[in-house]
Specification:
This protein has eight helices and 25 strands. It is α+β, with helices and mostly antiparallel strands. Among the domains are: about 90 residues, conserved putative lor/sdh protein from methanococcus maripaludis s2 fold (Beta Barrel), CATH 2.40.420; about 60 residues, Beta Barrel (OB fold (Dihydrolipoamide Acetyltransferase, E2P)), CATH 2.40.50.100; about 110 residues, Helix Hairpins (Orthogonal Bundle); about 50 residues, no CATH class. It starts with a helix and ends with a helix. The relative contact order is 0.15.
């Protein structure tokens, strides 16, 4: 009995425990179900508004500039060399590094004694040849006269022979007389040949002497030239460079003694890229004589020199592309600019009309620009980039009068609500760096349907207002002020 009693009590306790657990489970399930089925209160998302600095698009007429680096060079540089070997008797005191040379100035002179002697000998040889030529011409005259006499005698002998032969035919003379006449004629004929040979020899001798005379004249010209080349005269005015001679020095033929730089022919040599070079030629492919400004930094100041593009090199710069361009310089002071100076070059391009100059930070590489719509939302437009100059960019096709964002950032995108900060706001201290405001509400589909149905039922609402509100709500975004007003009307207030 005791065992049965204990078993009954145990069974009773188990049953009570199981019942309590089942009740607790049912209560928990009901609580979870009630919780899940209870509608959540809609939390509307807030739209973030960014403050952006804006400016208006304006049309301008400007002359863009091309910037490059170049080197000052002289287009006329002369290496001064000794044309003859010898000892220097005279050297100008201006023949020094940096010395100013005038046109026609004697720079140096070699010892001329040997060169004068050579010239004198050549002159003596010339006079001797002239004398020989004169004598030969006299001999030719004599030979010609002798030849004419011999020819006359030959004619007489011929006539005499003819008479004797006729007489012999008639028997009026002897055969011996005829033979004597034939011998005399033969002798005269030989004399004519000899005299003619003398004439020809005289002519040949004269020809040789005339050739010799030309050689003597050439020798004199050479001696005079060599004598003249012992004295070097500056062909133009300039500045001496690399000068290294002094009186008494021995110099060899063709030895380099210095360099004469024409300072009036100073120009700047600089490189342009292919795109830049395309902007300095006209529609006909001709190089334009555009104005240039070359700047030289000296201590704490900048020296500026005006010039003009003059020509372009026929070769592409070594190790690059584009073109090498030369611009002439207008210099007033010889000491201001020297060959080898490193210069900043500005090239003024032809004027561009109906263009806008914007900050480089406002335009992307592919020409995208943010402008502000009537509802203060960002709208992205495309512009044509013409030039980039440092922190500025020159564009065409920007909408005139539109406000654009001066500084793009990754947070900005098309359709985003912004607060424009204008220059007047910045001056008056009204602008802030950024603004977060609960002005725009994102609508769920249910709420959007309710609002649209309500608007369709509004017969007394003006059509233009209704259309604007329907368009705004259909986008899924509506201002909190508009939402509150519509909900108030829906409740009948």
């Amino acid at each position: 009995m005791r065992f049965l009693l204990r078993s009954f009590i145990g069974l009773l306790i188990f049953s009570l425990t199981l019942g309590v657990l089942c009740f607790a489970g049912f209560y928990l399930f009901d609580a979870i179900k009630t919780r899940t089925e209870k509608p959540e209160k809609k939390r509307y998302q807030r739209e973030r508004i960014f403050a952006v600095n804006v400016a208006k698009v304006e049309l301008e007429v400007i002359a863009p500039k091309i910037f490059s680096y170049g080197e000052a060079v002289s287009k006329r540089t002369l290496e001064i060399r000794s044309m003859e070997a010898g000892r220097l008797d005279y050297v100008s005191d201006k023949f020094v590094e940096g010395g100013f040379i005038t046109e026609g100035q004697v720079l140096f002179r070699l010892n001329q004694k040997d060169f004068i002697n050579v010239l004198e000998v050549a002159e003596i040889d010339l006079e001797d040849t002239k004398a020989q030529l004169e004598e030969a011409r006299s001999q030719l005259d004599l030979a010609v006269r002798d030849f004419e006499v011999a020819r006359t005698q030959l004619i007489l002998r011929k006539n005499s022979l003819d008479r004797q032969q006729k007489l012999a035919t008639s028997g009026l003379t002897t055969s011996s007389t005829v033979e004597n006449s034939e011998l005399a004629y033969s002798s005269s004929e030989q004399q004519v040949i000899n005299k003619q040979n003398l004439v020809e020899k005289s002519k040949i001798n004269i020809g040789k002497l005339e050739i010799q005379l030309k050689r003597r004249l050439i020798a004199i010209e050479k001696a005079e030239r060599n004598l003249k080349e012992t004295e070097y005269i500056a062909p133009y005015a300039g500045i001496m460079s690399a000068a290294k001679i002094s009186p008494g020095s021995l110099v060899s033929k063709n030895e380099r003694l210095g360099v004469l730089i024409d300072h009036d022919a100073i120009e700047v040599r600089f490189n342009l890229s292919a795109k830049e070079f395309a902007r300095v030629i006209n529609n006909k492919g001709e190089l334009q004589a555009l104005e240039t400004i070359a700047s030289l930094e000296v201590a704490d100041s900048m020296l500026r020199f005006k010039g003009r593009i003059e020509r372009v090199s026929p070769e592409i710069p070594q190790g690059g592309s584009g073109r090498q361009v030369f611009a002439s310089m207008q210099l007033k002071d010889y000491n201001s600019l020297r060959p080898g100076d490193f210069l900043l070059v500005e090239v003024e391009e032809p004027e561009l009309k109906n263009i806008s100059v914007l900050p480089a930070s406002a335009v992307t590489i592919d020409g995208k620009l943010f402008i502000i719509s009537n509802e203060d939302r960002l709208e992205e437009v495309s512009v044509n980039i013409l030039r980039r100059q440092g922190e500025k960019v020159i564009v065409s096709g920007a909408p005139l009068g539109a406000e654009y964002v001066m500084q793009r950032s990754p947070q900005l995108g098309a359709g985003l609500k912004v607060k424009p900060l204008r220059s007047s706001d910045l001056k008056n201290g009204k602008a802030s760096k950024s603004i977060d405001a609960d002005t725009i509400v994102d609508l769920d589909q249910k709420k959007k349907s309710e609002l649209l149905d309500f608007l369709e039922s509004m017969d007394r609402m003006p059509e233009n207002v209704k259309d604007r509100l329907i368009k705004e709500i259909s986008s899924g975004k509506v201002s909190s002020k508009t939402l509150r007003r519509l909900e108030k009307r829906m409740k009948g207030n």
